Structures are given as C-alpha cells and as structure tokens.
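Issue 218. Parser rejects a valid record. Input:
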Amino acid sequence: MTSDYDLISTTIFNYFEGLKHADRTRLEAAFAVDVAHMKGYIRDTEGQLQLSSRPMREVIDGWVKRTPTPDMVGKILAINIFNPRAAIAVFDFNGVFTDTFQLAKVDGHWRIINKFYVDAHDGAAQR
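Output the parser choked on:
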C-alpha cells in the first residue's frame, strides 16, 4: 500500500512537472482547482513587497501558456501530515522560491488547496 507521504510527494511533483512542461492535466491533478489559491510576495512598480492572492484556476491558465522549462529542479524539504485529511509541505523551487503547501485529502486524493511562496533570496525566510 502506498503511504500518504508518497501520495503527497506525487501530488507535489505533479505540480512541479506540470509547471515545468506547461501540462494542464498534471497541474489540475495537483490542485483542488475550484477552491485553491496561490499567495505570495511580489514586488510592485516601486520595488516594495506586496502580498498577492490569486485563484489557482487563473494561475494555471497562465502557467500553461508559458514556454516549457524542463531544466528546473525542485526538492521537497518537509512533509507534515497532522490529520488523516490535512498536511503541509515545504518545497525548494529551483533554488529561487520556497513554496509552502497546505494539502487536503479530497475524494481520497491529496490535493494542494493553498500555495504560498517567497523569494528564497530576499531575506524574508529565516533559516
């Protein structure tokens, strides 16, 4: 039997591989698309960090229009399952962003319901 850790890893890598290859099917397999959001800090026109939040359906629509970037690398840094239906994970996105995911078990499948990212080099993350 496949462990929840393995199933969550598969979900996260569906996201990452889907993004790398502009693959809507893999991206939609990773997210609870109808309820998921992506949040993170982006710089405004004056260079100030602003917190952003967007529905994943809108985000995925943009991602699949990008040119595939198969050279990107990613690594799961941590997975914490704290309930049979809830987990969190931390992911190193190509050494550029640190992603955190809230995951829920939806209809028996682990899905990302929230994605929060920070620039790994902006000093916001304390290590």
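Fixed in the parser; the record now loads. The radius of gyration is 14 Å.
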